[in-house]
């Protein structure tokens, strides 16, 4: 998860991870929740008027059968909005993922500083 330290907009951040699906059917990440955020959405990057913007991903993020999906800067990500606290490098944040087979996974996500593509995650300040 991206630290908010030094960010222009400290009310939002994003989480990135790899999701592995050992099963024989495709599965979707359908929602996420965290106690540090008022609202958590699943986002994708899309071209709009010639530039990349992020938007809510319809139906969630698919993890193909016996394969994996990377959530990374510039691609799909878990968006945390309405942050209730600053997130510093070294912090750990609880994040609960819910999948299309009704399973949930409770994660403890390390907070790190990112510098690349910062502007994509702060569209209102550009
Ligand atoms: Cu986003």
From TrEMBL:
Bilayer-crossing regions: none
UniProt-listed InterPro entries: LpqE-like, Lxx211020-like, PCuAC_sf
Gene3D superfamilies noted in UniProt: PCu(A)C copper chaperone
PANTHER family: BLR7088 PROTEIN, COPPER CHAPERONE PCU(A)C
Entry protein name: Copper chaperone PCu(A)C
